[in-house]
């Protein structure tokens, strides 16, 4: 499982926990998140996220 960070606002998407409140169940890999999904904090698109090393 990987973690992705929004380069605009710093919001973090963790594949392990997903984002159930935004319609993305836990365990959803980043590549399976819909292309039209946007950051729940700032509205940035998937292209504005980068994989983050923890």
From TrEMBL:
Q: Is Transport set as a keyword in this record?
A: yes
UniProt KW Metal-binding keyword? yes
Q: How is the cofactor bound?
A: Binds 1 Fe(3+) ion per subunit.
The record's listing under PROSITE patterns reads: RUBREDOXIN (PS00202), RUBREDOXIN_LIKE (PS50903)
Job of this protein: Involved in the hydrocarbon hydroxylating system, which transfers electrons from NADH to rubredoxin reductase and then through rubredoxin to alkane 1 monooxygenase.
For this UniProt record, give its keywords in alphabetical order, as a comma-separated list.
Answer: Electron transport, Iron, Metal-binding, Transport
Q: Which CDD domains match?
A: rubredoxin
Which InterPro entries does this one have? Rubredoxin, Rubredoxin-like_dom, Rubredoxin_dom, Rubredoxin_ET, Rubredoxin_Fe_BS
| Pfam families xrefs | Rubredoxin
**Domain named Rubredoxin-like: residues:** 1-52
Q: Which GO terms describe its molecular function?
A: electron transfer activity; iron ion binding
Q: What is this protein called?
A: Rubredoxin
Q: Which cofactor does it need?
A: Fe(3+)
Q: Which residues bind Fe cation?
A: 6, 9, 39, 42
- UniProt-listed GO biological process terms: alkane catabolic process
Pathway stated in the Swiss-Prot or TrEMBL entry: Hydrocarbon metabolism; alkane degradation
The entry's family comment says: Belongs to the rubredoxin family.
């Amino acid at each position: 499982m990987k973690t992705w960070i929004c380069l605009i606002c710093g919001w973090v998407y963790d594949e392990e926990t997903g984002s159930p409140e935004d319609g993305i169940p836990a365990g959803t890999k980043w590549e399976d998140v819909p292309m039209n999904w946007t950051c729940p904090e700032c509205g940035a698109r998937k292209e504005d996220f980068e994989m983050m090393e923890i």
